[in-house]
Amino acid sequence: MIGELWKRKRKTEKIQKEQGEKNIFVVRIAEIEVHPEWIDAYLEAAGAVGAESVAKEPGVICIFPMQKKESPTSIRIVEIYRSEEAYKSHLATPHFRAYKEGTPHMIKSLELVPMHPLDPEHANGIFRKWL
Fold first, then answer.
1. Which of 43, 87, 101, 130 is 20 to 30 A from residue 62's alpha carbon, by CA?
2. Total domain count for the chain?
3. Please, what is the average pLDDT of the chain?
4. What's the rounded Cα separation, in Å, for the pair 86 and 80?
């Protein structure tokens, strides 16, 4: 299994090199710690901006907020965009701006972790919007 994933990763890297950086989708995990007194309001805001982004923006493949079971103020959000341009466009939308401007006081810490997908060829089986 690991050998197969390694082969897929190498194939993905080759395709990305051939296509150039502008055609590579963007994957990030946002690691967020929320102040306990703001958790309910933050969960509502994160859920709303994720749903609206996926519904309204063709370049947003996934914005999937999650909460750690054993640490409810620890939030992780998987973000997948069709391209760097789609990500930049998302940052300029009114719904994202409202989220970004309305939640800083709720957030104790935030780290955006860039990720490299190991098997993007088969993502369409998971994310139907990617088709």
1. 101
2. 1
3. 84
4. 10
Whole-number Å distance between alpha carbons of 75 and 44: 12
- Beta carbons within 8 Å of 49's beta carbon, 6+ residues apart: 63, 95, 96, 98, 99
Find where tokens 């760097």 sit.
84
Q: Provide the domain limits for residue 89.
A: 2-130
With 0.85 as the threshold, say if the pTM is over it. Answer: no
Which residues have CB under 8 Å from 87's CB, separation 6+? 26, 59, 81
CATH code, domain with 20: 3.30.70.100
What is the distance between the alpha carbons of residues 115 and 20, in angstroms, rounded to a whole number? 17
Asked if 113 and 29 count as a contact pair (C-beta separation under 8 A), the reply is yes
Q: Is the pLDDT of residue 11 over 90?
A: no
Please tell me the predicted confidence (pLDDT) of residue 20: 53
Task: Output the CA–CA distances (angstroms, integers) from residue 105 to 34, 42, 76, in the order listed.
Answer: 9, 10, 18
